[in-house]
Amino acid sequence: MDSTIDKIIAKMPKSLSGKEFTYCPGCHHGIVHRLIAEVIDELGIAGKTLMVAPVGCSVFAYEFFDLDGTVAPHGRAPAVATGMKRAMPDRIVFTYQGDGDLASIGTAEIVHAANRGENITTIFINNAVYGMTGGQMAPTTLLGQKTTTTPYGRSAKANGYPIRMSEMLATLEGSAYVERVMVTTPQNVIKAKRAIKKAFEVQIKNLGFSMVEVLSTCPTNWGLTPIEAMKWLEEKMTKQYPLGIYVDRTKEAE
Amino acid sequence: MNFLNFKTRLFVYIGMFGSGKTELAINTAIDLRKQVSRVALVDIDVISPYFRSRDERKFLKTKGIEVIAPPGVLSHADLPIITAQMSGYISNPDYFTVADVGGNEDGATVLGSIKPFLDSTSKSVFFVINTLRPFSTTLEEIVKNIQKISKSGKIKINYLVCNTNIGSETNGDNIRKGEEIVRKVSEYLEIPVAFTVVKDGIEYSGKFPVFKLKRYLSNLW
Amino acid sequence: MKMLFKGSEAIAEAAIRAGCRLYFGYPITPQSELTEYMSRRLPEVDGTFLQAESEVATVNMMYGASCTGKRVMTSTSSPGFSLMMEGVSYMAGAELPAVFVNVVRGGPGLGDIQPAQSDYFQATKGGGHGDYRMIVLAPHTIQESVDLMNLAFDLADKYRMLVTILADGMLGQMMEPVEFPEMRDPNGVPKKDWALTGASDHEPRKVTSFNIDPYGLEEMNLRYQATYKKVVENEIRYEEVNTKDADIIIAAYGTMARIVKTTIHLAEKEGIKVGLFRPITLWPFPYKQINKLADTVENVLTVEMSYGQMLEDVKLGVNGKAKTPFYGRSGGVVPTPTEVLEAVKKVMVGDLNG
């Protein structure tokens, strides 16, 4: 280490592999990756953590973490994580999933994993659009929002309503901890990290299913600059998806 | 051994899955029919997909036995069907009726749904035991099975039947060991052993009366 | 000590004896007894039984469990196996070992619950997407099912491949005396240097079926193909009965082969010498072996509980050296030994040609 540096105030978390992220400028995946890695470092669980990446923009996420990991078929990460956890109950298993993955094609898997109280942690990135496949409608796309498959804007009549997963999963008794956060400001980032840490601690204590939903931007597919995108997230998305803790059964469970 | 000696007109066979209830029910019906004119075999096995009494309906008809099972094509449906006709035959005093119930607690549960009919008629309930079947090899296991099935079927068991066998390769030694375990169960639960089933062709005499069984449910080969 | 077991129960017990302690499944007739047996038996041996919310979830739970290097299995019947095809393809691509039991019933679609062999194509030719293979074992007795279960897990581990036991409703439901091998220690199975167990004692490992670079993916595919080649070279299994100086050879597998064994006796009484060629591995198929047999007869009659699926492999094997007539029934109807004998006679008088 360079001896001229006498105080390190920021460094790469050990649990990140150092591979360059594939994400677009202004995308929030990178921030969330970093938060997860910091939490894993702080909890000292890197050596026993298994990661399940999804199909979506974060399909390479398993490469970005210095952990044992795999990629699940689209939407099936909670089932894959269930298999891992049941095979090795003393390991820490987490899934990282987008809105198409978790809230559309994988609804059965996430609902039942939560309902079983599967002792896994899910980080759910909700950016109201399909990023990977090129900006199509997501189940969380807002009403009126234009996407490549809702060129006239999402209409409730044709496409139904933006689905609120945290609210839905909170109703299940197996869900020990569910919180929705965003990472638009340093203050929000600190809150988000606290939520992610809590979710992993819930798993470490064997209390059941935990999930943190992170409202995120997609400047590329939204057609906004990173700053505009953050503004849009704060103004529009938080109305449909209010922040907060939706369920915390950790006290009862403990 | 004569089934009329049980002084009942309703024979109910329950037991663990694969303990040999169906084969025994068919044999009982055929044996009874040699002595009385009206015999019905009620198939209330709602859990087995194959090898059920209903599969032998045509053959049993030639023997003068009525088989009561879901009608026509429904008898092969993957559905638990109980028809009103079944309870009719169970409570009909003009008939000697043999009831073939599905295996395990799951198979016996259905008895609860026809309990009023079962209660209103004099009956003998036989618990069939094959000690060479999984989960039925020891006193402890068998006692637990009997208690569970009796509870789920809401029915009291009057007799035990020793049906220890491994199919075509059964020998007298197998049966003797089976009788020994069933005797212990009988003493423990204070339920008498009605008879021991011995497949036609095996010479055997042991502790209990012997019922010679003919195999009717056969594989295609 | 021999005991009386249903086919599906025997397969379950054999899996446990083979060191499998993880079962994920979803009930479906006619194999639910296997699922129920596991739910009762696995807790007795500190194993894990989990009834999944669907077959789609089942196969992905297997994917996750297999990633950790432990032995894992499921059982299902035709419509359920179709639902698993997504995960089958991903597992094949990620080279994850696992054992599937498909107790085949009548199809297509909802079909019925009677025994059939109409999932032969799905099992042996793909079913899921991509250039992959699965080892397919076809037992014809309950004892053989038990013996093949041990082999299935060993082959899966050895080649990092999926192995399917292709049974049918008849094999699953019938009862026979059976003897089990000794219980194997689940911790005694070979350690896997690729398994995801937490990167505390190794560099972080990645198990995926994924490679965005076409040359990289081609390389992965070449690796799969090299494995499949080894399996073809080393793992072909089959049985020949009465084939020496036979008047006609019947090719049949599973329950159908069992029936043909009775046909052999019936035919003998009428002075016809029928031989049986019974593939035990449906993939890899014993092409060379049947080709050799085809030199000795005029006709190789394929008999199936389906409409000419294995027939295609028989034709590839026979390669024009003999005629390849076909007799089959489907939808859950099982040909009787006498019906098969009728077909033999028709072939011999030239009424049934191939």
Structure report:
The complex is a heterotrimer of chains A (254), B (221) and C (354). Chain A is built from eleven helices and seven strands. With 254 residues, chain A is an alpha/beta fold. Chain A has one domain: Thiamin diphosphate (ThDP)-binding fold, Pyr/PP domains (Rossmann fold, 3-Layer(aba) Sandwich). The mean pLDDT of chain A is 96. Chain B is an alpha/beta fold. In chain B, 31% of the residues lie in helices and 19% in strands. Chain B has seven helices and eight strands, in the order E-H-E-H-E-H-E-H-H-E-H-E-H-E-E. The longest helix of chain B has 18 residues. Chain B has an eight-stranded parallel sheet with strand order 3-2-4-1-5-6-7-8, sandwiched between helices. The longest helix of chain C has 21 residues. The relative contact order of chain C is 0.13. The mean pLDDT of chain C is 97. In chain C, helix 3 packs parallel to helix 4 and helix 10 crosses helix 11. Classes of the chains: A alpha/beta (254), B alpha/beta (221), C alpha/beta (354). Chains in contact: A-C, B-C. Chains A and C meet through strand 1, strand 2, helix 3 and helix 5 of A and helix 3, helix 4 and strand 9 of C. Strand 2 of chain A pairs parallel with strand 9 of chain C.
CATH top level assignment of chain B: Alpha Beta
How do the helices and strands follow one another from N- to C-terminus of chain B?
EHEHEHEHHEHEHEE
Rounded radius of gyration of chain A (Å):
18 Å
Looking at the chains present, what oligomeric state does this protein adopt?
Answer: heterotrimer
Helix and strand topology:
The complex is a heterotrimer of chains A (254), B (221) and C (354).
Chain A: H1 29-43, E1 49-53, H2 61-64, E2 68-71, H3 77-87, E3 92-98, H4 99-105, H5 107-115, E4 121-126, H6 156-159, H7 165-170, E5 175-182, H8 186-204, E6 209-215, H9 219-222, H10 226-240, E7 244-248, H11 250-253
Parallel strand pairs in A: 1-2, 1-3, 3-4, 4-6, 5-6
Antiparallel strand pairs in A: 5-7
Chain B: E1 10-15, H1 21-33, E2 39-44, H2 57-62, E3 65-68, H3 84-91, E4 96-101, H4 104-108, H5 115-119, E5 124-129, H6 139-152, E6 159-162, H7 172-189, E7 193-199, E8 210-213
Parallel strand pairs in B: 1-4, 1-5, 2-3, 2-4, 5-6, 6-7, 7-8
Helix pairs in contact in B: 6-7
Chain C: E1 3-6, H1 7-17, E2 22-25, H2 32-41, E3 48-51, H3 55-67, E4 72-76, H4 78-93, E5 98-104, H5 120-124, E6 135-137, H6 142-159, E7 162-168, H7 169-173, E8 175-178, E9 206-207, H8 214-234, E10 238-241, E11 248-251, H9 254-269, E12 274-279, E13 281-283, H10 287-294, E14 300-304, H11 310-318, E15 326-328, H12 337-349
Parallel strand pairs in C: 2-3, 2-4, 4-5, 5-7, 6-7, 11-12, 11-14, 14-15
Antiparallel strand pairs in C: 1-8, 6-13, 10-12
